Amino acid sequence: MIVSEGWQRLEPKLNAIRTRLSALEYEPDRRHSFLPFTPEPDSPYVGFEGSRYLMMSGYSYLGLAGDPRVKEAAKVAVDQYGTGAHGVRALAGSLPLHEELEAAVARFLGREAAMVFGSGYAANVGTVGALVGPGDTVLIDKLDHASIVDGCQLSGATVTRFRHNDPEHLDRRLTDAKGTGLKLVIVDSVYSMDGDVAPLPELRKVCDAHGALLMVDEAHALGVIGATGRGIEEHFGDNTLVDVKLGTLSKAIPATGGWVAGPQALIDHLRFNARPFLFSAALAPAQAGAALESLRVLDLEPHRVTHIQRESARLRQTLNAAGIDTGTSETAVIPIIAGSDEKAYDLATACRKAGVIGLPVVSPAVPNTQARLRIAVTARHSAEDLDVAAAGFLEAAHAIGLIPSLP
Ligand SMILES: Cc1ncc(COP(=O)(O)O)c(C=O)c1O
């Protein structure tokens, strides 16, 4: 029983999350957060409470999470280097494997150098904090990822938001920006809740007109867009559009970690100034080994990327033809927009009854009128799997009245 004054003062916060969750997750069928799914090694299906479901909300875009080559590389790394990295990178924590991985990231992306962080979150927070500070201005898209927002807030720089994917609004914001400090523009390549792509050539022009640097988060783009999965520059056919490239090793690359790539001088600066790099343990050997092998497989097997692009277009088309709103999606991320938070939960529950996992994303992550299931197509989903998924989504959408009839 909690009685102290400190705990009593904390109680309103503890109650707020309980109240909010109980309004949405009021019976076991409506529970959708923190469910412990057990993945099957060689399929997009997962086990949960004795039943088998088709998982449609995972991030493992390239379908490599259970790949025998990637698993073997993780095991070899553990055999060679052990389970931990023995400290921070600047002291005892650097392994030859980290350097191999960094060289592979730089090579794959056509950059001079790269470095890896413990997570994509840490990569954003650390990079932003090392690039800007008081007196500088950072301009971010309204829908940029939380790790970019947090990095900006911690940095002490002036933070300005511009309208989503709106280069003209960025132009006006840059015109209004005061002072002679650095101006840094940060966008996501592919927006994680909407699946649309940043208008990079136009953003580049605006940045150049104002002498601003352009940083891009490729978390949902690496392995997904561009003919061979090299991300947004390959998508637009110009490898000179981005100044600072950043991404994760936790989505298409099925490990954990984050990376930054750019000129050697930038990486040298970040290695000595990015606080989550300096003051947090190095990437564990198994993660580095798995990431390195996954990059090699991505390089060898671009058909995985083609599959994702073809099949996500086909799924989107099937859903749209039946009257489902998938917003502005043009990549593997496909939102199924339900409306209110309650409706998104109704839909997720109906999907699970139909044997498909589509997890809800609700306010405040998205506006309450735009709550959705966040779906992602991966190379692990066969065309047949996606037909099963589409049938499940449509059945569920019809069951809750989101679409009036089934095709
Ligand atoms: C756009 C974006 N950036 C960064 C991150 C953080 O990456 P990680 O999960 O590897 O920390 C995420 C994760 O969801 C993301 O979606």
Automatic annotation (TrEMBL):
What is the main EC category here? Answer: transferase
Which positions fall inside the Aminotransferase class I/classII large domain? Answer: 59-391
GO molecular function terms here? 8-amino-7-oxononanoate synthase activity; pyridoxal phosphate binding
Catalysed reactions listed for this entry: 6-carboxyhexanoyl-[ACP] + L-alanine + H(+) = (8S)-8-amino-7-oxononanoate + holo-[ACP] + CO2
**Required cofactors, per record?**
pyridoxal 5'-phosphate
InterPro entries for the chain: Aminotransferase_I/II_large, AON_synthase_class-II, PyrdxlP-dep_Trfase, PyrdxlP-dep_Trfase_major, PyrdxlP-dep_Trfase_small
Q: What is its EC number?
A: 2.3.1.47
* Alphabetically ordered keywords of this record: Transferase
Do you know which Pfam families this protein is assigned to? Aminotran_1_2
Write the signal peptide boundaries. Answer: none
Source organism superkingdom: Bacteria
Q: What is this protein called?
A: 8-amino-7-oxononanoate synthase
Organism field:
Actinoplanes derwentensis
Q: What is the lineage of its organism?
A: Bacteria, Bacillati, Actinomycetota, Actinomycetes, Micromonosporales
